[in-house]
Amino acid sequence: MIPVVHHPAYVVPAPSSSGYRWNKNGMIRDLLRERGETFAWFEPAAMPRCWIEEAHDPDYVAEVIAAQVPRDKERRIGFPVTPLVAARAQIVPGGTWLAATLALEHGFAANSAGGSHHALAATGAGYCIFNDLAIAAIRLVEEGRVERVLIVDCDVHQGDGTAALTAGRPGIATYSIHAEKNFPARKARSTVDVALADGVGDTAYLERLEATLTPLLDSYRPDLILYQAGVDPFAEDRLGRLALSEAGLERREALVARLAIERGIALASTVGGGYGADVLAVARRHVASIVALGRAFARARAGRD
Questions:
Q1: What residues have CB less than 8 Å from 254, skipping those under 6 apart?
Q2: Which CA distances in Å does 188 have to 4, 118, 159, 207, 229?
Q3: pTM (2 decimals)?
Q4: pLDDT tens, 129-144?
């Protein structure tokens, strides 16, 4: 069984004037459920406010929880923060934290949302309100569940918020492989950044990923990987600038899984970015990512039994 974390609040009505595809997470859930009994489902609780405030400015947290985010911040986020959106923002980090604790037990687990890597201390940005990756990583280390966590970000956009929010924190390192000329215009500094030219395809991408991630894993030796598995490096993605095929995305997941399994590192994945008019096609790419990762870890467990 592949552990998957989902909450009904992940699927909320689209706020007015929103360019974000709010039904993506519901489609991911439905497509996974159509596969039958392969998955074990877990429902998270909202992340306690005190842990959100470990990563984010308390005044900004208060604005979100009250659904009173100033217009300039809502413009940076990309949509209005309604009460339903505010509730979702508190639950998604709880989902990433729960997926991480399940991964420590089972080897792998997936959150069917999350990967909000652009959110900064005092504002959201780029369709991200609270940075679930940073919040979960900080909590995991502070609770003593892990000594070292590595956030691996394969979204087409740099994980600027994650890098900024975790910089200098003991026990947390960050890796981002992304399109150099894509959003955000101002990049943060991750532990390791791999900036790619426009149009990089499967072979070159996978070679760079393995060549740069392998030495970091071997030198840092994390207990857990929090994996931002954005599918927007896909060639036809509306907001991407790279040229991966769907087969290339699945090869990416096989590579990341293999590197983790060979080193005995648990891995928890988040959905991350994926954009296009055909939301069902985008959701299918996210599902393929979860399934590829889950199957790789399941095969590894079966081989040890």
A1: 292, 296
A2: 31, 10, 8, 24, 19
A3: 0.96
A4: 999 999 999 999 999 9
